[in-house]
Amino acid sequence: MTPPPTRRRRTGANGSTPALNLLRRGTVRRAQAITTYGVGSLVAVDHESFIVSGLDEADRSWSDREAPRVHERRLERLLGVDHFRLPPASDDDSNDGLRVRRFPLMHSCPECNELQRHRDFAPPPGRSVCGTCEVDLVPSRFVVACEAGHLDEFPYRQWVHRSTDGGSGASGNCGGKLMMRTSGRTSSLRSILVSCTCGKVPEVSMEGSFRRSALKDLGLTCRGTRPWLGASVPAKGCGRPLRTLQRGSSSVWQPVLKSALSIPPWSSRRSDPLAGHWEKLRKYDDRTRVEAYLDAVFDEPWPLSLDEVMTLLDAEREEEAEGDAAPSFDHRYRALRNKEYERLRAGNDESEHSREEEFLCETPLGDGSVLDPLGVTGPMLVKKLREVRVLKAFTRLVDAESTTDAKEMPLSEKPLRWLPAMEVRGEGVFLRLDEERLGLWERTSSVAARAERMRTAHQRVLEQRADDPSRAVPSPATPRMALLHTLAHILINEWSLEAGYPAASLRERLYATDDMAGVLVYTATSDSAGSLGGLVAQGEPERLDRVIRSAVRRAEWCSSDPLCVESEASGAIGTNLAACHACVMLPETSCEHNNILLDRALLVGTPDDPGLGYFAGTLES
After folding, report:
1. Whole-number Å distance between alpha carbons of 482 and 491
2. What does the radius of gyration of the chain's CA atoms come to, in whole angstroms?
3. Which of 15-19, 89-93, 495-499, 528-532 has the lowest mean pLDDT?
4. Helix boundaries (H) for 146-228
């Protein structure tokens, strides 16, 4: 990572061509540039803090040389881009790497206690130390943000002078210097003390700065600043309420990620040569016009045959959501998932697999009927898969799972025809629940009532986070969704014990709507744990039967029982029931829904109602 403000120049080999050499400040894994340290996020490097710069067409770090292009046509069409790019990576100094800017700019010196902008300490070039005391400067622990995604410095001067100017801004002319010290009496905000040398106001603590209306009471609203875009991009007036946050809080930055599996006919890699032409080709309905277009654009031989192009065009049209002429993004995203579910059910056993094929899904050789007593059906061995995960935008203060487009902050000032992405290749096991048995279980009054408790709690959270509660995103909580979600979690935990996979290297992909009832557990990393065949071997019916039975038995007890199973609400936002870190919760990288909407009672029942669980009474072997 390299901050643009501090630059050195070096001379080329012949002494004539100056080359730009930016200072490096640390390293992150390539995948983290999508999930953890994406555009607009804060990165702590040693004792310094930076914000990841926005995307810019003039930024060489995202050039084709440093950020290779990847394609996933289904996801490109959904997001309205031409291609994706991997985050820039390099093992040497030949590439710039990921650009960052220093933020927050407010720093304090633990020796002289001065609190001011970083440059005012007159640090030596390339270092972050007090020019007088020569000790490491401490970046501000506090920042402010609004729900529209803007980020700014904490208004220390207005906070100190609030008793005199009420946030009017007159404090900026007091002529004094800000000071910050810690009393050391407690670890609370009461011990962090800020003062001004003007002598007009007493020393105040940071206690109360996190109240929802703390900054509103000072008359402060969001200025619309976007420090990840640099000082050259002017702030746009926002006016929304500001909230104080810890610099390392997860609420400061949450990625809006979208993903898709490469499935036939798009998984053969042969469609890539036509990247950039599909939008025009989709306008043609008949073979003659498609043939004329290919003749005009390509020399013989064409990258794909006419039959292959028509097959791909037909596949695109099939994925368009039915109904309204202009379906919403969520409807189109669900249509994308529907096609994945259909392909996972059908597999591609009958096709001739070429080396370029990136999706191999086959029926196990064993007898699948051994799973019938468990209410599980249709296991499939996904021997080869490719997933593309795209960073679409990011949010602040708002849960990315429940956000709307209005609260998503784009990654660049100007619209770009590409987005950052990561591709993961691996393997997995897909299974479905018996529709007839699942339907009977869902209609049970006790099951519906328990799921409704989760849905109500989740919907309340969504409404609290929405500007207009009446237009809040509806909660996806249903008995089917909670059951499949919890089942996926216990399977991942069981395979981490049975097959030696780290739980963080496995990931779930849920298919839980009225016409889908499946779950895919697959390797979520691109390292050696990705495609060694160990996970696929777990999908053979006899072994899968043992794994499910063992996982369900393990879910019957939790070291936190009886508190866990009798809990009225659990989890960070109270949207789980019988679920905690001692039983079914997973690392965040493994879960699609941030460890919410989980309840192992829907699997195994409760002491008061053993028949509540989907697997109740089926474990006697």
Report:
1. 14
2. 28
3. 15-19
4. 156-160, 162-165
Percentages (nearest 5) of helix, strand, coil residues in the chain = 30, 20, 50
Q: Using an 8 Å Cβ cutoff, are 422 and 87 in contact?
A: yes
Instruction: Return the closest-CA partner of residue 148 out of 506, 396, 454.
Output: 396
Q: What is the DSSP letter of 338?
A: H
**For residue 241, what are its two tokens?**
């309420």
DSSP strand pairing (100-102 vs 178-182):
unpaired
pLDDT of 14 reads 39
Element (H, E) at 423: strand 418-433
The residues that bridge with 327 in the sheet, in sequence order, are none
Overall average pLDDT of the 51-70 stretch: 81
- Residue 341 CA to residue 361 CA, distance in Å, equals 12
Give every CB contact of residue 26 below 8 A, 6+ residues apart in sequence.
Answer: 1, 43, 45, 46
Handedness of CA 546, 547, 549, 550 (dihedral sign): positive
Among 158-167, 365-374, 395-404, name the most confident range: 365-374
pLDDT of residue 433: 96
Quote the CA–CA distance of 536 and 521 in Å, as a whole number: 10
- Distance from C-alpha of 167 to C-alpha of 509, rounded to nearest angstrom: 49
Q: Whole-angstrom Cα distance, residue 224 to residue 239?
A: 8
What backbone phi and psi angles, to 5 degrees, belong to 85?
Answer: -130, 135
Residue 379 has pLDDT above 90, yes or no: yes
Q: What is the Cα–Cα distance from 522 to 528, expressed in whole angstroms?
A: 14
Other beta carbons less than 10 A from residue 552's beta carbon:
23
CA distance 34 to 387: 14
Output phi, psi for 592, to 5 deg: -75, -20
Query: What pLDDT score does 63 carry?
Result: 80
Q: How far apart are CA 407 and CA 397, in angstroms?
A: 10
For the cut 60, the answer to whether the pLDDT of residue 2 exceeds it is: no
Over residues 21-38, mean pLDDT: 80
403-412, 482-491, 515-524: which range is least confident on average?
Answer: 403-412
Dihedral over alpha carbons 363, 336, 575, 501 (to 10 degrees): 40
Phi, psi of 244 (to 5 degrees): -85, 135
Question: Residue 404: CA atoms inside 13 Å, Cβ hemisphere, count?
Answer: 14
What is the structure's pLDDT at 9? 37
pTM: 0.84
pLDDT band at 231 (very low <50, low <70, confident <90, very high): confident
Residue 575 in tokens: 């949207």
Q: What letter represents residue 412's amino acid?
A: S
Backbone angles phi, psi at 357, to 5 degrees: -65, 130
Q: Enter the tokens of residue 380.
A: 């499939």
Per the listing, tokens 């390339």 go with 126
pLDDT of residue 267: 76
Cβ count within 10 A of residue 287: 13
* Residue 507 identity: R
Q: Is residue 114 very low, low, confident or very high in pLDDT (cuts 50, 70, 90)?
A: very high
Q: Bridge-partner residues for 50, per DSSP?
A: 43, 102
